[in-house]
Amino acid sequence: MTTISADHAHGHDDDGHGHDHHGHHPAQAHHFESMEQQFESGKLGMWVFLATEILMFGGLFCAYSIYRGLNPDVFLFAHKALDTKMGAINTAVLLASSFTMAWGVLAISRGKPKLCLLMLVLTFIGGCGFMGIKTKEYYDKYTHAFVPGKANAFYNVGGAYTNPEKLQEGVGYIQYKQGHGDDHHGDDHGAHGGDHSEDDAEHGDAEHENDGHAAEAAEGGHHGDDAHDAGKASPAGVEAAEDTAHAAAVPAAPPPSVWPPKPVDHANIKTPANAAPATHPNFTRQAEEVADVSAVESLYKGAAKAQAQAGHAHYPGSPAELDPLSGERTHIFFQIYFIMTGLHGLHVLIGMGVLLWVAWLVAPHAWRMFVLASAPATVGLYFLIAGYLMGPVVWMLVFGGLCLAAAVAMVVMGLGKLDDDRPGAFSPEYYTPVEIGGLYWHLVDLIWIFLFPLLYLIH
Amino acid sequence: MNQTAKIGLLITWVGVLILGIVSVIVDWMPVDGGGFSEDVDWLYYFIYAVNVFFFLLIGGLMFTFAICGKQRPEDRDEVVHGATHNTLVEVAWTFPPLVIVLAIFVWGFRGYLDMATMPPASADAYLVDVEARQWGWTFTHENGASVSGQNYNPETGGGAVLDIPADRPVEFRLSATDVLHSLYFPAQRAKKDCVPGRYNRMWVEVTSAHIDARIAEMREDGLAVDEQERYADYPLHCTEYCGQDHSQMNGILRVWKPEYWDAQLDVLNIWNKENLSPIKWGEAVYTNNCASCHSVDGTPRTTGPTWKDLWKQERDGGPVDEQYILESIYIPGAFKVTGFESQNMSTFAGQLNYGDVMGVIAYIKSISGVDESEIRAEYPADREVYDGSDWLDENNQVMEPPALD
Amino acid sequence: MTTLTQPGVHTDLIGKPVTDPNRETFWNASKGWASWAFTLDHKRIAVMYLIGVLAAFFLGGTMAIVLRTMLLTNSDVVAGGLGKGPTAVNFYNQAFTIHGAVMVFMFIIPAIPAVIGNMVLPMQVGAIDVAFPRLNLMSFYCWLVGALFFLAVLVMGGLDTGWTFYTPYSIRTSTAATAAVLGAFILGFSSILTGVNFVATVHMMRPEGQGWFKLPLLLWALYSTAVIQILATPVLAITLLLVAAERILGVGIFDPALGGDPVLFQHFFWFYSHPAVYIMVLPGLGVISEIISVFSRKHIFGYKFIAFSSLAIALFGFIVWGHHMFTSGQSWLLNAIFSLLTMSVAIPSAVKVFNWLATMYRGRIRLDTPMLYGMGFIWLFTIGGLTGLFLAALNTDIHFHDTYFVVAHFHYVMVGSTLFAFIGGLYYWWPKMFGKMYDEKWGRIGAWVVFIGFNLTFFIQFLAGSRGMPRRYANYPDEYQVYHHISTLGSYVLTIGLFIVLFNWIHSIRKGRPAPANPWGANSMEWQSLSPPPHLNFDTPPKVGDPYNFDGWKYDPDIDAYVMRDDYEEIMAKGQH
Predict the structure, then answer these.
(1) How far apart (Å, rounded) are the C-alpha atoms in residues C393 and C385?
(2) What digits encode the pLDDT tens for the residues A49-99?
(3) What is the mean pLDDT of residues B101-106?
(4) How high does pLDDT run on average in chain C?
(5) What angle do CA B278, B284, B286 make, to 5 degrees?
(6) Hey, is A45 helix, strand or coil?
(7) pLDDT confidence of A162, banded at 50, 70, 90?
(8) In the CATH scheme, what is the code of domain B125-270?
(9) For labelling, which of B173, C4, C184, C535 has a CA lying 20 to 30 Å from the CA of C141?
(10) B108 lies within 8 A of chain C by CB
């Protein structure tokens, strides 16, 4: 709490018509008594706002916990679609940018605007890096049909999978990831890893996958004993291995399961069947549908069992091993992933906007145009690179080029103003925007610190 | 105190007195149809008494203070210097309400535990499956009989009629196919939501005495009652907003005296007049359709594998379960049993309905050593394909069941 | 003869310069539409909010009258008649949904904080403005955009989900639920911004000498409200976003058909919406604390108990949400815990009522319009609060859940209490806001008509609900028709009463006599300013004192108002005890 000054009333009289009277910092708003009060108010307001942000993400974390608690196997299975390495790099990038941000705030509070500007620029570059890597990740998801909403590979209505072709690809990709270079599975996969070598080139190709895994399934029979020897295999694993051996003997008649991914007409789905617990026969599946035992499903079951036999018995190999209701929730992992990271990404973007605004204020007038030019430059570079990598996509390249041109134009304009010797807006007496912008950036960082292990590092 | 104030005070407290008397006279709760009404009404009237007391006290005091202390225009300047705080008084009026609300909580909790605890197996509870949909109810009985409809129509007797026996607990297994609904028996003070994706349970027990009382009351009100006094009707509503025809889901809870229940079950029974259990029904289906190829005592036959101990046996398609049996009957080619590859069983799709298959499953369980009570506990299960409507004529009356063969 | 402290105050307080058309007030400080559209003045924002929420109230009220009128007729549904046809039923479903959603999100939640709070809160801490005037303006525009979304809903096919947006119905309905949840999302932002502003203002802008316990109780209530707004609204925001995502993308978190859980939505929704109930009623409790004390001419009794009970209600409000879900199938243990916690809310509410009564005890009670609303508030809040006991107790709630009993209960709390506090508070601060006095006689008549109409409308619904009338029924069993007739009749009386109030206000603005600075003899700081206040609120710095010590003011019959005694500071320093 601050004190009300003795000349309060007179201050008001003057103040109503301008801020130029004696003793007041030009940045002080008329309704504040002192710079200190203004600064503290701004900080308090920002903290309160951050509390609302945390609670908003808190709702999502709550939904995450509930679904993970209900379906731990689904989360174990589906998180393999995420790239831990990229997530880790992004974590490092954000942490570093938080560090530079803090340094920037320190710099301006010590009266070093140029150092502060440098730090803000570094922070901004960190944000760009984060969003770039995130784009790459999203793009990888996109190519494997791990997209939000109804196009997701695992999307299903009442257990009837609506995108069977994508499902095939999605499961194949996850299994591929599972078999390859995954740090927290180390030696578990042993000999099995080699089986996938041919998948490296084109793991996305469904036909190819099919062959590859069928081969594995057949091979699984021979490895049956290994599973016993490994000593790690659970009874389920043993059973699975035996089943696989059996299945390999009669490859022509793939068994139907409680998890048959069936193509259905979305419009015809009226009454979801997942109301029935797993112990009850699920009669909604019409006779014809039951007859339609697709190759897809035998693929997953066979592949999953081969996986299980090869030492992954503790780990769900595919949704076929999951409880039917859980299997139906596999897509919810991706939905939660996209909503959480999407909302976080939006916050990063807003944070980058705030950084740019703060940097513009910090910079001496002569440099402001250059700071401003970084906005179109960033967008332009982003679209150029993305457009090139994705296709190339012409409209992205054109748009990126236009943005870069705008940036160049702004730089040219800026060159004409180099003789403007006015300093930046902030001083150790007044740097509230830097402070609260920094708080916001730290919040964005903090949320990611939670998101990364929760989504990428599931054990 | 002047004359006006005295009159005002008189009016206030006479009003308080009248309100108090009126509040005692008014009968708030609906007809007592057994269930939990005794407990609920007790607590209701206790809280009611507490409420009337506090409300009349607060309202009366408020008017009294206003009348006694009414400011005269010439007193505008007067400021009253009374006590501004008194911790003792605060504590004194904080604790009695605390004790009262805790008592209310404990009372309500005990009554609620009774509602939430399903009757034990020894209580011989009757199980009804209740499935809500937009917009109507389907009630499926233990024998597979199923009644479906919207509003009860007294002219035709059609609509959602939920028949239950009296003098024994009746358990309801609630589910919904689309959106939230809620089953509400006002006379039994029972309510539970029907949530898609999960089963909720609720139970009530109505005695014959309640039925007699209800019939007498309805007679008094000039309402139509059953001439033979076999049953009494109570209302039933959907209380969770579910869209357009939410208000058209008013059915009837029809409670039958135990001596008439078996006969009513026969009427409801769409499988046969003998009121067979699912196992017996399965046996009949087996005898008429399957016995020529499959044995049930383990005797090997070349035409088909025996059903003896079939349940949960490991087969190519996994252990034998409901899905396996269903698919084997409808799409015989789906599973081939080793040794019978050359046999081509023809499909029974179109010949055996859902209820028949349920019976067969129950029968297979029974000859595989599954305990009978366990089998009964499973029925009726999911009825999403079959809602029994094909057994009802245009007046919603149950048609004659077809001959067995 | 009055003696006054300062020359500047003197002339204003005796009322003469008030008639001076040239005096600068916040109304005439600047001119043109832009001076309003881009104003940062909390008083002008309050006025704009007032017009907005009254328009929303009119829309919601129209819907209420429509649906009450539709419930007059009923063609014997249970006896096999068809009742209302699908068109009428759909219209009814939309009417109650729009009524509920507009009243809750656009009227009750912003009403007292955004209108009375914006007007009075900065002045009660002697400040020129709230801490963040730009955010304040942004809050209003968020409200406006959210309101436009709701208007768009009306033309885009309406809304029939009920204001609670329960899934999976809200996911499946063909009506404009997406626009509605986005509208509510934006309205939520408006609420958050107001909350942030109030917290920062109360924390940072108080003058020296005004400790926490010298705040008027309205500020404690608004502060508690702001805490709820800040902590609860974001959860609603994310919940509504998820519902929108369900509808647009089909993410399945709340949709059982996709493996989701509809009960999870209820948890999320009520985690906000139960505290939101206290967002609606707490400011009303604050307003009444002011009115009761001022019009009893007596220091408020048990200041600290009332203040802390506001905080207690705000905190307890966060841990009781599960009592909306006793029948949803959540475990008996959760139900028991939520029931017990819900009981705890009864205590601070009871403490408030008892303290108001103790304040009135032996007071010199001035039965003017605001006080009539204050007493009406106590009456209705007592009924609303006491009937809450039925709904907090587990087994009685099983019977009453989703019946008209619940409808009657929350209308007593929401409408009875909040609306009465809002109208009473507006009458109380009307002179300060508009600089005009209202017609006392018609004010009292209006108060009585509203009071009678309200009780007629809603008390009978307790009876209907007790006897099993489910809520949200377009058609109903005939036995309930008599209750609906009485209720509908009451709603017409209520409407007449509200129009009397409205005409009284309009008449006051047009023809009312100029208001003195302090017509009630109140001692919170806003009364030390002129009516209406100048652009910067105070011409001279207000003096800090106990807001409920009325000794510092003397009645001046010439202007029918109170003027400050010249030994005001000594009186305040001495205190009442």
Answers:
(1) 13
(2) 999 999 999 989 988 888 888 777 778 877 878 888 889 999 999 999 999
(3) 94
(4) 89
(5) 100
(6) helix
(7) confident
(8) 2.60.40.420
(9) C535
(10) yes
Contact B381 A280 (CB under 8 A): yes
- Quick check: B62 and C379 CB within 8 A? yes
- Give domain limits for chain B: 3-70+85-116, 125-270, 278-387
B75 lies within 8 A of chain C by CB: yes
- CB B108 within 8 Å of CB C393: yes
Closest to B150 (Cα-Cα) out of C296, A96, C82, C173:
C82
Q: Partners for A (CB, 8 Å, 3+ pairs)? A: B, C
Domain boundaries, chain A: 54-146+333-456, 159-164+177-323
A62–C contact, CB cutoff 8 A? yes
**Which pLDDT tens digit goes with each residue over B211-221?**
999 999 989 98
Residues of C in contact with A336 (CB under 8 A): 251, 253
Of B43, B195, B200, the CB nearest to C395: B43
Q: Which of B7-11, B382-386, C358-362 is least confident?
A: B382-386
Provide, for chain C, the percentages of residues in helix, strand and coil under a 3-state DSSP scheme, each rounded to the nearest 5.
70, 0, 30
Peptide bond into B135 cis (omega under 30): yes
Summarize the confidence of residues A411-431 as an average pLDDT.
87
Q: Does domain B278-387 have CATH number 1.10.760.10?
A: yes
Q: What ranges make up the beta strands (E) of B154-206?
A: 161-165, 170-176, 181-185, 190-194, 200-204
C236: nearest CA partner in chain A: A56
Whether residue C250 lies within 8 A of chain A, CB to CB, comes out as: yes
B248 touches chain C (CB under 8 A): yes
Q: What's the length of chain A? A: 459
User: C420 vs chain B: nearest CA distance in angstroms?
Assistant: 16
Second-level CATH architecture of A54-146+333-456: Up-down Bundle (1.20)
Dump pLDDT digits (tens) for A347-362: 999 999 999 999 999 9
Question: Do residues A443 and A56 make contact, with C-beta atoms less than 8 angstroms apart?
Answer: no
Supply A251's token pair. Answer: 């490859």
pTM reported for the whole predicted model = 0.80
Amino acid at B142: E
Selected from 1.20.1740, 1.50.10, 3.40.50, 1.10.287, the CATH number assigned to the domain covering B3-70+85-116 reads: 1.10.287
Give me the long-range contacts of B216-221 (CB less than 8 A, separation at least 24): B217/B31
Residue B200 tokens, joined: 């909720």
